[in-house]
Design a protein that fits this description.
Length: 341
Amino acid sequence: MAELTTLSVNSRGSSQQWDIKSLATNMSYVKDSNFAAGELTFDVLEVNEGWTPQNGDEVHMSWDGVKVFFGYIFKIGYSGDEKFSITAYDKLRYLKNQDSIVWPAGTVSQRFSTVCNLAGITSRVVSSSSHKLSAKVADGVSYFDMMQDDIKETKSATGQQFFIRDNYGVVELAKMPVKKTDLLIGDGSLLTDWSYDRSIDDAANVVKVVKNSKKDQGKSTSTATDSASEAKNTVLTSQSSVGGTTARWGRLQVVEKVSDDKMNAAAMKAKANQILAEKNKETRSLKITALGTLEIDVGDSFWLSVNSLADIGVGKRQVTVTKVTHKFDPKNWTMDLEVQV
């Protein structure tokens, strides 16, 4: 039977650790590839041994002999039944720090290393990118926001899906899937429940790229009373791309504004085609509940085989984990997985 191997807390830099594994209950661990810190939550009964948790304390947690979580306490609740409710985050939490940076042209892996150094966290580039990102200004936004834009642009240009995760105190930039496992989850193999959704709520099959130009570049307006003259002085040019799903879904149009006044029609058309390729598709969501295992992490893939899904066209295949929630109970260890289909 799986069990909690280590759960200890100590002040930063202190060698004195408090072993609280025998006091902990209701332990849950959430790890998400969508620019969010890993979160460990648990309850601890108060004991009269001089220990009280403090925000900023380090938390070390191992399950079944495997190191799972290293992070810091960010929230402490205390209730009438003399129980502490603790929330700790891994080092990705420090990528919520905000900054202003003028970025030269560079790759997503170069920028990742820079923001981790600025945030003061240990990092490792598991997968690097050779795609050059344009120079830009990031003003007063979080490191997460900076990386999200760069990862999105890299995916659009290369098709490669990068993401960020914490590996027991080392923040990693990696590419999905990081590891292709032989693990099988499905009928008669770990699976206990599942749900599958398909949606076009966020889809688009018509993309219009619009450029705003001024007839008289030497004049500008800044007040509401000038709106009529501004309209007379404005020229809108556009290029559109139309997908093949309009007859089936109806017209679903989005507009992309470009700030480059010198962008020509061919470049605008290419941009419209690129956005259309990203948006003219269903969003598919598959959530799985299974018996717990540490064989897979966020970013890893496993084999999925469910007869009922095969009946609607989702046959046996490898899928990649985008989010995992472990509910660490020695009597009933389960995990909820969100996967890319």
